Amino acid sequence: MSAAHLSGGAPPLLNVEHLSMRFGGLLAVDDLSFQAGAREITAIIGPNGAGKTTVFNCITGFYRPDVGRVTLNTDRGPRYLERLEGFRIARAGVVRTFQNIRLFANMSVLENLLVAQHNHLMRASLFSIAGLLGWCRYRRAEKAAVALACRWLERIGLMDKADWDAGRLAYGDQRRLEIARAMCAQPKLLCLDEPAAGLNPRESMALSELLQSLRDEEGIALLLIEHDMGVVMQISQHIIVLDYGRKIAEGSPRAIRSDAAVIRAYLGENGTQPLPPEVMEDVGQS
């Protein structure tokens, strides 16, 4: 497994080794290995049914893989994610969003961001005792949680809608709010499942800028599944391509654009399947 894309030979933040996942007779992920570097954006792409979401579910604890190791390298040493329950994976610093938005529609925009800080607030409250008694420790934590939520609302341009029910927001605003909620959990690795789905070109451009700022200003790593090749090619340092659960290519956006196996996966062996225009445009670039 090559680590050439990792800057300066630094150890990867995420190391996936020989990951396999089977559902009955279907081998959804087949002996997959890859790395994701710290402070980098890594994309997983491939045709529908390639196994991308299954990989995400294995990394984030929704599935326990049949075979393989998923290691998050932290300051406190390696964390073997395949051994942890899903909530412990989030506490280790791996947070995700979903293809279908999962906000609390009947809670306010601000409350959605406070929910993401629930674990921290519960610890500060000594699991409700300090909160009920109004101890200073809890009041300080609560004030800090509101400040962090407001910081992210300012960042995504929704401070003026902090008291709205989240379900009232426009679709693009809900997408940004979901990312802000994930960031309130202060992740080391943010996993995004099709964050550009349903966005118009202007919203996709704004999303690309937001994701790059998370990498550059917040210093986190991002791992994303995405069908919008414009977004993928613009923001990713490293791309993994899957087809039928197997890795068929890996490399920089420039290398992936011209990879014969990638072109076959999208076009079909004889080139008879139609390639989406945005993919054709990116694959055809040199």
Q: Could you please describe the fold and organization of this structure?
A:
With 286 residues, the protein is of the alpha/beta class. Strand 7, helix 8 and strand 8 (221-225) form a beta-alpha-beta unit. It is built from twelve helices and ten strands. It has a domain at 1-34 and 63-85. The model is unreliable at 270-275 and 278-286 (pLDDT under 50). The longest helix is centred in the middle third of the chain and has 20 residues, at 136-155.
Sheet with most strands: strand arrangement: 6-7-8-3-9-10
| Outline | globular
Largest β-sheet summary = 6 strands, mixed
* Count of strand segments: 10
The span between the termini is 25 Å
Element-level helix/strand string:
EEEHEEHEHHHHHEHEHEEHHH
Fraction in beta strands: 15-25%
Which runs of at least 5 residues are low in confidence (pLDDT < 50)? 270-275, 278-286
Mean pLDDT: 87
Helix content: 25-40%
Radius of gyration: 20 Å
Category by helix and strand content: alpha/beta
Annotation keywords:
4-stranded antiparallel sheet, alpha/beta, 286 residues, globular, 12 helices, 6-stranded mixed sheet
Map the helices and strands.
Layout: E1 14-23, E2 26-36, E3 41-45, H1 52-59, E4 67-74, E5 77-80, H2 86-92, E6 94-96, H3 109-115, H4 118-124, H5 129-133, H6 136-155, H7 171-184, E7 189-193, H8 201-218, E8 221-225, H9 229-235, E9 238-243, E10 246-251, H10 253-257, H11 260-267, H12 277-283
Parallel strand pairs: 3-8, 3-9, 6-7, 7-8
Antiparallel strand pairs: 1-2, 1-4, 4-5, 9-10
Helix pairs in contact: 3-7, 6-7
